[in-house]
Design brief:
globular; alpha+beta; 13 helices; 28% helix; four-stranded antiparallel beta sheet
Length: 523
């Protein structure tokens, strides 16, 4: 929906609210006109139902307001004596229109000092659950969101089985585009495997101010730009649908290219503006290798002794294929008495690989030799022709097209490029773009496959690993990686766990709560 359409919708809602409640305002000792003034009417209504004024803010928070509107409708009915289970059901099922009946067909007086405590245990449970969901949704959307690491694309920095807290406020929280969705679920409902949201109506993209910009080599969580799957989980990957930005699947990669950079991949290493990118000391680049051995080497040796996470796959003729290993691991493996040779398993320069951006015969890119390319920066103008358009086609049509409410269509006719039927020779970008890659260079679906990540797809910054389970071990306790529990994602030097600090604070909190309760009991 456009801003004009949203304005019309908002005014219609205000008219309906006025028509359905103005008499109730009068019975509560207020003026009828107060029911007609947008926002102010909500503040007055919170006084009528004897609830805090800040509930007004919750009515304008997407997703949260889906819970708050039925709560306010129900509280309004109860403030005039309609507090039976039947009344509550009618209020909710009619989307608040039951208030018209109370407003026009009854003379029920306003109960100024009604008891706000639920009349039953069930009512208390429902109230507690609803506001727990409201609080969790606000934290989840605007402050901090939990994530898990399902793949090894950032192995050695983030491990499969890590449980993260991702900050939404570092780069600025992205407000929801989707207005109707199941709280606390992302793009699908478990078990049912159907969409958890409605495509309409949608709000325009907006982001709250952050306190830092994305820096080179930051690990970033973002919405997968090319996601069109109804359910992305293994075994359920199906369907093709246009997803709102905030309902695309979440990915995590390292930002190696910033807006305005010229980026190239040479022999698997990233070069920015002609200079090799220097990664933090905790980051470990991994490549694939072929190992020739004169005797059998156990998987335990590969995994435990040489820290090769996924081990080695035996290949015919005494060879082993290592999908991912660091330079340090390979240097140690060379000293194994049964190792004859170790050969990097890399793509050949100039040999195109299918599924590599921008998938044009003009650019024979592959995972190890890529580019150079320009990473678009907001406000920058680039030349558009038949040679450059493969890089910017999706930007113009999708990211700055229909995802911003604009129906852009690119056509190439010979050497000429048409935008919505009109020839163009240049284009000015409306937002910044980033280049995100995995450290596991041969086992990472990243920007080399689908290209640029728009700024409006950025979700947040991983800041903390609060728990970690090793999927290769058995037994819950045995699987816990204690050295990774309560560790920071960023930083330099050796990884430090703050689990004992947290445990100490937890003990102090419960101890203080116990003695305070004991003191109150004595009093």
């Amino acid at each position: 929906m456009t801003i004009t359409q949203w304005l019309i919708f908002f005014l219609v809602v205000q008219v309906i609210h006025f028509l359905g409640t103005w008499k109730l305002y009068v019975r509560a000792g207020r003026q009828a006109w107060e029911a007609a003034v947008p926002v102010y009417n909500a503040v007055v209504l919170t006084k009528i139902i004897n609830r805090p004024w800040w509930w007004t803010f919750l009515l304008f928070v997407p997703i949260v307001n889906l819970i708050m509107f039925p709560v306010v409708w129900t509280e309004t009915a109860r403030s005039f004596g309609f507090n039976t289970y039947k009344d509550t059901a009618l209020v909710v099922l009619t989307c608040g229109l039951y208030l018209f009946y109370i407003n026009y067909a009854t003379d029920a007086p306003h109960i100024k000092d009604r008891d706000l405590v639920p009349k039953s245990g069930n009512g208390e449970w429902v109230s507690s659950i609803l506001f727990a969901i409201v609080a969790a949704t606000i934290v989840h959307t605007y402050f901090m969101q939990p994530f898990t690491i399902p793949s090894s694309s950032l192995e050695k920095t983030l491990l499969v089985g890590d449980y993260l807290f991702v900050s939404k406020f570092h780069y600025g929280a992205r407000t929801p585009v989707t207005t109707v969705a199941t709280p606390m679920l992302h793009d699908s409902i478990p078990v049912a495997h159907v969409k958890s949201y409605s495509d309409t109506p949608q709000l325009p993209y907006f982001r709250l101010p952050g306190f830092q910009n994305i820096k080179r080599n930051d690990i970033v969580v973002f919405s997968w730009p090319v996601d069109t799957l109804i359910d992305i989980r293994p075994g359920f990957m199906r369907g093709s649908v246009r997803k709102p930005i905030d309902k695309k699947s979440n990915y995590v990669k390292r930002c190696v290219g910033l807006p305005g950079d010229s980026l190239e991949v040479r022999n698997g290493y990233v070069y920015i503006n002609g200079k090799q990118n220097e990664l933090p000391d905790r980051a470990k680049i991994q490549f694939s290798y072929l190992v020739q051995a004169k005797a059998e080497i156990s998987q335990r040796t590969f995994i435990n002794r040489y820290d090769i996470t996924d081990g080695a796959q035996p290949v015919q003729g005494g060879r082993y294929f290592i999908a991912a290993a660091t330079d340090e691991a390979i240097a140690r493996l060379k000293n194994h008495p049964d190792v004859v040779s170790i050969t990097p398993y890399k793509s050949e320069k100039g040999k195109a690989e299918s599924g590599t951006f921008p998938e044009s015969p003009l650019y024979p890119n592959n995972r190890d030799y890529f580019g150079p390319i320009y990473i678009p920066k907001k406000g920058t103008t680039v030349a558009i022709n038949s040679e450059s358009i493969p890089f910017y086609n999706r930007i113009i049509e999708v990211y700055e097209g229909y995802e911003m409410g604009i129906e852009n269509q690119i056509e190439v006719q010979g050497s000429q490029v048409l935008l919505n039927g009109n020839p163009i020779t240049e284009y000015t970008f409306k937002q910044d773009y980033y280049w995100l890659m995995g450290d596991n260079r041969h086992n990472s679906q990243d920007a080399r496959a689908w290209g640029y990540v728009p700024y409006n797809h950025v979700v947040g910054k991983p800041v903390f690993v609060w728990f970690s389970l090793d999927p290769n071990k058995k037994g819950f306790i045995n699987r816990i990686r204690w050295d990774r529990v309560f560790t920071t994602v960023g930083g330099e030097g050796k990884l430090v766990s703050y689990r004992y600090h947290f445990l100490g604070l937890l003990i102090l909190y419960f101890g203080f709560s116990f003695f305070r309760k004991k003191k109150k009991t004595k009093a």
